[in-house]
Amino acid sequence: MQSIPVDTARLGVLRCANAPEVKFSNSETQEVKKDRDGNPVYTVAVTVRPDGRRISVIEVAVSGEPKGLEAGQVVKVTGLTAFVWSMGDRQGVSFRADAITPAHGAAAHGKGGDA
After folding, report:
1. How far apart (Å, rounded) are the C-alpha atoms in residues 73 and 112?
2. Which domain of life, per UniProt (predicted)?
3. What is the per-residue pLDDT for 27?
4. Which of 33, 71, 90, 105 could bond to 41 as cystine, CB 3.0-4.6 Å?
5. Coil, strand or helix: which one is 108?
6. CA-based diameter of the chain, in Å?
7. CA–CA distance, 22 with 106 (Å, rounded to integer)
8. What is the DSSP string of 10-70?
């Protein structure tokens, strides 16, 4: 799997779309996915709107529970990396970050806004 660093400055305003959700390695047994160090992995839906284009939502995996995130809040995504994958006839792009934190000094806006 090839990893591609992502320049978050080119993604426009990043907003948390929903509260962090724990990621399961097995949905039937509800076994929580863990990283190499044994930390639980969470998924955060983040909206992006590069250069005034349409808003897109990417799901970003992060180790450990991100604190203080609320829907609509502007966030800072540190160390964002994209991974191209394929499994049989399915393929896609997954995203992982070192951290997702509230952006300081940015007010959360409900619906609408930049992204």
Report:
1. 12
2. Bacteria
3. 86
4. 33
5. coil
6. 45
7. 26
8. GG-S-EE-S--EEPEEETTTTEEPB-TTSPBEEEEEEEE-GGG---EEEEEEEESPPPS--
Which two tokens mark 15?
């907003």
Q: Tell me how far apart the alpha carbons of residues 34 and 68 are, in angstroms, rounded to a whole number.
A: 21
Q: What one-letter code names the amino acid at 46?
A: V
Answer whether 83's CB lies under 8 Å from 95's CB. Answer: yes
Please state, as a whole number, how many other Cβ atoms lie within 10 Å of the Cβ of residue 61: 18
CA-CA distance, 78 to 69, in Å (whole number)?
14
Residue 45: strand pairing partners: 59
